[in-house]
């Protein structure tokens, strides 16, 4: 029995592009056969979406009529045409040319679907729902709508059958009702697909429950009014909305994963930097300890090499001597003579106080620096007594005050101010800054 065909144009549905171009997964589609589908776009409409085309039509309509096109207008329509297994895109393009020639219907797109069927486990070609979708511009060049009567739609069935070399379908209200019932069945299948899509989505529990409630209401409404095209459009719109939500969630999920990767990389980098800092700190600590050890060793060697720079006479009580900082922040160095009870206090700089505390300056050096005049006066006093002069020399031998041996001259006459004595050495500080060889080269006066 020869296969029959028919063609009937209706206003496009919101989700027609998603369906025609297979932009979503459908339960009644056999995915393995989808590569067999074919698509064609008229060059006059290339690169434009149906929304773009509708806007252009609306602009032409406004320019012609002088007012906006009504929202319920249907300037773009679609027809599903039954085809044979051997129907080619060239056959359908021929039909498109004939429709434009006789009725002014300008075909925008043609989509051949060879992947729809009711039994996905047994995709028998004879059982497939082979058809093509014609998406057409249903307006004149000025944007006004085509006006086709019943004779035109009847003639259209004949033209379709002749171009596709198929038998013409009979025109009856029963057949048309069956087509609507078929759409109702497809709508219910879409609802089932929508319910499955919601169940598998990443939406929250509350969002899913709200969608389930809306879906259940749509099912009840369709059962009560199977011919309600608006309800079927709502199913398509709701499906498209869920797909958009799902795509948005997927996009956010990908962004979150990218952020987590960046965070993980930064954490690894910070961990590496912390480890490097710890290693650097350990190396620095080791270096500082080594520096401190070398400084101490250097100080010990200096003391051995130049004992007179770091040893005080025995008549100074080194143990009793101490440095401190008062409540006002002023630093002091206290000194006592051996056997004496009196303490002598002198102010000292904060820098020397810190150096003394960290070991850069010895206690002997600090005492010699700040109590030098007092100690020199003590030594001069001892030298003023000839019977004790030899003992005084032995006390200062190989000490910081070794240069005071210059006072051992028998002709030395003490005065109330030793600095005015012409027999005193020129400058104690000059001698203090000399090295050992220079001091040995000095002759006693």
**CATH structural fold name of the largest domain:** BirA Bifunctional Protein, domain 2
Extended strand count: 10
Helix run count: 14
Mean pLDDT: 80
What's the CATH C level of the largest domain?
A: Alpha Beta
Query: β content, as a range?
Result: 5-15%
**Main sheet summary:** 5 strands, antiparallel
Order of helices and strands: EEHEHEHEEHEHHHHEEEHHHHHH
Strand order of the largest sheet: 2-4-6-5-3
- What is the CA–CA distance across the termini? 149 Å
Helix content: 40-55%
Poorly predicted runs of 5 or more residues: 172-180, 410-445
Q: What structural category do the secondary elements indicate? A: alpha+beta
Task: Tell me the overall shape.
Answer: rod-shaped
Assigned CATH architecture of the largest domain: 2-Layer Sandwich
